[in-house]
Prior knowledge:
27% strand; transmembrane helix; glycoprotein; TNFR/NGFR_Cys_rich_reg; 5% helix; Tumor Necrosis Factor Receptor, subunit A, domain 2; mainly beta
Amino acid sequence: MRYAQSAIDLSCTQDQFLHVNGSCVDCPTCGPGQQLSEDCGYGDGGGGHCEPCGEAEFSAETGLAPCWQCTQCALLNREERASCTPTSNAECGGCLKGFYELKRKNGVIEPLCMPCLGPSGGLRRDCLPPGPSAGLAPTISRTRPKEDSRSMQSHIYTLNLYNSEASCL
């Protein structure tokens, strides 16, 4: 009898459990903002009930899927447009100040915003203002420090970004 019961277990689908009478029965489905209290499907489960999603979790659809962790926009260096609720995920906006969007070659934008300052402390090109403003173009000029000596190879670079300057040594 034990062998026959395991053969029946295999006939239940991913959204059915094996009832005590030996037939496959549909698992209970939960609405948005809920999840089953235990796994159900492929013959297992059946004793579960719907319960609310936990803290910082959501479920947007009706079905058997568990609740999902809410997106944490701050961890992606993005602004939060809409908070996470039990029935909807958080909605992230643009990059936080000091970060920029990284685009792949195929045009897809990465969810994680990258810091504007590079590893060497320089400002990334992606963080510069987009295009000239009022007919002005950014300029970079190179000058020698006043203590000019033949052994000194450093220069001062000045970047003029549309009437505001940033200097780098």
